[in-house]
Amino acid sequence: MSLFSSDRNWLEFLSVVDATFSDFTQPPGEAVADPIESKKECVERISVTRAFFLGLAQNSDKDRSGLLALLELEKRARIHSLSTGD
């Protein structure tokens, strides 16, 4: 199944967002090796994920899932104080 098809699954998009913030969603008791480096890597992943969802949003006139995914990505970036303000 292509992500550009008309049958998009919101859970797949949430999985991409979850993976983007995986450093901040580790089970309790598991510490991040280097918090500063983890934040830098997460900001890079946010940028890549944002570009991915933006591409989906621009390629679909009727499907709003790409735009909703962008909103969810920004919401989580703000929660973790990683928003770039773009």
How do you describe this structure in short?
With 86 residues, the protein is mainly α. It is 58% helix and 0% strand.
Shape: elongated
- What count of helical segments does DSSP give? 3
Describe the biggest sheet?
Answer: none
- Average of per-residue pLDDT values: 83
Q: Termini distance? A: 30 Å
Order of helices and strands: HHH
Q: Which strand-content bin applies to the residues?
A: under 5%
Which residue ranges are poorly predicted, with pLDDT under 50 across at least 5 consecutive positions?
none
User: What is the helix fraction of residues, given as a range?
Assistant: 55-70%
- Work out the radius of gyration: 14 Å
Extended strand count: 0
How many independent structural domains? 1
Instruction: Give the structural class.
Output: mainly alpha
